[in-house]
UniProtKB/TrEMBL annotation:
<dbReference type="GO" id="GO:0016627">
    <property type="term" value="F:oxidoreductase activity, acting on the CH-CH group of donors"/>
</dbReference>
<dbReference type="InterPro" id="IPR036188">
    <property type="entry name" value="FAD/NAD-bd_sf"/>
</dbReference>
<keyword id="KW-0285">Flavoprotein</keyword>
<dbReference type="Pfam" id="PF00890">
    <property type="entry name" value="FAD_binding_2"/>
</dbReference>
<dbReference type="InterPro" id="IPR027477">
    <property type="entry name" value="Succ_DH/fumarate_Rdtase_cat_sf"/>
</dbReference>
<keyword id="KW-0560">Oxidoreductase</keyword>
<dbReference type="InterPro" id="IPR014614">
    <property type="entry name" value="KsdD_DH"/>
</dbReference>
<dbReference type="InterPro" id="IPR003953">
    <property type="entry name" value="FAD-dep_OxRdtase_2_FAD-bd"/>
</dbReference>
<protein>
    <submittedName>
        <fullName>FAD-binding dehydrogenase</fullName>
    </submittedName>
</protein>
<feature type="domain" description="FAD-dependent oxidoreductase 2 FAD-binding">
    <location>
        <begin position="8"/>
        <end position="541"/>
    </location>
</feature>
Amino acid sequence: MQRRLEADTIVVGAGLAGLTAACELADRGKRVLVLDQEGPQNLGGQAFWSLGGLFMVDTPEQRRLRIRDSADLALSDWMGAAQFDRPEDHWPRRTAEAYLAFAAGPMRAWLAAMGMRWFPVVGWAERGGALATGHGNSVPRFHITWGTGPGVLAPFLARASDHVAADRLVFAHRHRVREITRDAGRISGVAGEILAETGVARGATSGREVTGSFEARAASVVVTSGGIGGDLARVRRAWPVDRLGPPPARMICGVPAHVDGAMIDTAAAAGAALINTDRMWHYTEGLRNWDPIWPDHGIRVLPGPSSVWFDALGTRMEPPFLPGFDTLGTLKRILGTGHAHSWFVLTQSIIKKEFALSGSEQNPDLTSGRWREVLASRLGSGGRATGPVEAFKEHGADFAVADTLETLVERMNAIADAMGDPRLDPARLRTQIEARDAQVANPFSKDAQITAIRGARAYLGDRLIRTAKLHQILDPAQGPLIGVRLSVLTRKTLGGIHTDTDGAVLDAQGARIDGLFAAGECAGFGGGGYHGYNALEGTFLGGCLFSGRNAGRAAG
């Protein structure tokens, strides 16, 4: 069976960037065809699983918390993090500047007009911890959307539904694009395979049985197909060995298996230039999911600043490699041991207040958008952490719990033995923890982590819900003690298809390919990598919205 389709514009990929582009195109009266290799149960892509955080600048939420932010400060932070240093960084830099103007300007009003709202406490992610000119957010900028990822998707799904009803938008699921076609040198559409329908759960691995083929013609094509994080072999091939050392032999996946980057190769075959493909964003605080949905399913811990962090050999990690401060630097530091895992040691007081798990499904209270559930989960749970965190503590293979440090290390070593990891020396851990604890006894300290905790609690948002009161780790009143084995968790692609700020795809000579556009993660969230080397968080969903909006307003 061969199916023939026509539209004004084709969007390849039904994630957040694709939905945004499709809605903007349909708003302009274009007939839009959205193709996606997965079933309708995966509509919205990776945004569905997200915490819904958005990087925005100088917002009412910030001002209410007495956070003084500005476009100039955000630009300084971004450039200090990005460290653009390549000739091909021209468009990534321009796109970053444009996004910052958007994030400090019309972004919030545009989203609020669609009904989006945000949790009143602004999160402080990627705090840096080194120099003012280096990586990190100077102030909190992570705005969690009420409803988390599904809350971000909701207005675009509603807009798309209206356009479907008006016959301006058509979704064709289980259509896998294999080729971007040309006619007289200009992009003319796409061609590919029709896959058998699937009833698997969202995120689960779907079948690849081919039941037919299709051709779709359009004046323009927008590629919004996502990154490579679900293909561990491909991640290893792209790994920046010169900067980070050899890739880990063992990693876990923060995205489903279908996030494989195949469409990036298809765009390259059509003439698209690929840039910065060695830039990527993987997390160091990954947990093996005790209730997995996709292969090697991992969940990220979003830590507060208080857990004591040890490398695989049992050495406490030095600043700026503290929880929540410098993801890429910490990744390099961990891998420098020759191993790809590390350990948190913390108390029940810390896990209750500081442990959050990334993802909509791990934060049902925030996903519900109901204050009653948030207050009950975060503030009314007695000495317990949130339900999902307590479930990981009880069922997760990476957790050890005990009343004494020696028993805790014994149980951590049982995990290490099962994983083939080096064993930890309880006496060595005790020496380091006792030295840290001795710094808590008075208001003075030479321990940078102690200073960082005190600094965090100076921010009202952290003091209320994100940072535990400073205490000694070995204080029995704060227990029990908890040890957590952390893995490298694949997540985001920071490079990809080279575009300009409109999302127009560029060829190897830097010229536009007439009729071809790209947005979202496959384009490095805009420009071919608008993050540079480091992300400031909230910039992944933000990049999908921004680049999808631009492409949807320029294509066709």
